[in-house]
Specification:
mainly alpha, about 80% helix
């Protein structure tokens, strides 16, 4: 197990470096460069050159990248061009909100998706299975932002049941928090629920067709033990892998959802920074999101290895 952990940690370094190069390169590909985007289309070449000198953008790209990488190694992501605040401070202030929304959506997706997937597998070929599969098709096909706008229009603007925008932390009370997050969490979790249902159903079907399950049936073992103790236990590594993929998807989906519901999270910060051409914030937020995805994948690999000896 220790060797596996070291191997996985060894893959993080090149992956993280590649991700950082990608993030840095995206900003450099801005037409005219970041300085031109900041100065505007009517700026004089002298003013653009002045901004380049102020930001250190007149240095060779490898030097700029290594300087930016050095700042990150010291825990600094630079300063915002708009309000001169440290990017790490902006991210730290917004991250708890996004983490709450994403975590609650993930918990909802797991609590709904796995049982539905098991039921669909147990009732394979029947009406219940067909209904669940139809639901998953809709969940995958419907865009999250479109569903979010429908939810705001129906439950907030017409029925007045829920607030249309904003976020109330859990510390302010369970009911106010629930009212503020129920629409973004449900709309964010719908697609992941459909994905988890489909993969759980597929993994359960594969496990139920194995020889050891047929042996368990022949020994007269109760049905609930066959489904949960034998089939689900062996299907769990595949399901956990999918849950890790879903968690990564939720990080990207939160950007759109937070914009629709005006939630002051890291997604809304990223959108505002793109619109205001605040490139240090864009670089910093994107880097943090990429590292989160890398860490999630590492955690999933280690969890699967811990519960499945075959992967070790």
């Amino acid at each position: 197990m220790l060797l596996l952990i070291l191997q996985r940690l060894g893959t993080i370094i090149p992956t993280a470096l590649l991700a950082s190069i990608l993030v840095f390169s995206i900003v450099q590909l801005t037409p005219g460069g970041p300085a031109y985007a900041i100065a505007g289309p009517d700026a004089t070449p002298e003013f653009v050159a002045h901004i380049n000198r102020e930001l250190g953008l007149d240095r060779p790209l490898p030097v700029q990248y290594l300087s930016w990488l050095g700042q990150m190694s010291e825990g600094s992501l630079g300063r915002s061009l708009v309000n001169r605040t440290e990017v790490t401070t902006l991210v730290a202030n917004r991250m708890p909100v996004s983490a709450t929304i994403a975590l609650e959506a993930l918990v909802l997706a797991v609590l709904v998706g796995i049982p539905l997937g098991i039921i669909a597998s147990v009732r394979a070929g029947g009406a219940i299975d067909s209904g669940i599969r139809s639901f998953t098709s809709i969940g995958i096909a419907v865009p999250e932002f479109w569903l979010a706008m429908l939810a705001v229009n129906l439950f907030a603007l017409q029925l007045f049941w829920l607030p249309p925008t904003g976020f109330t932390p859990l510390s302010a009370g369970l009911i106010p928090h629930f009212k503020s997050v129920v629409m973004p969490v449900v709309t964010l979790a719908l697609g992941p629920i459909a994905i988890i249902v489909r993969f759980t159903r597929s993994a359960m079907n594969e496990a139920l067709s194995a020889q050891y399950v047929r042996t368990a049936w022949s020994l007269g073992i109760p049905a609930h033990q066959v489904y949960l103790r034998f089939a689900l236990k062996n299907a769990l590594p595949s399901i956990i892998t999918v849950i890790g993929m879903v968690a990564s998807v939720l990080i990207g989906g939160a950007v759109l959802i937070e914009s629709v519901f005006a939630i002051p999270g890291i997604g809304e910060l990223l959108v505002q920074s793109v619109l205001s051409k605040d490139f240090p914030v864009v670089q910093g937020v994107t880097t943090v999101l990429m590292f989160l995805v890398i860490l999630i994948n590492l955690a999933v690999d280690l969890i699967v290895a811990a519960i499945d000896p075959r992967t070790r």
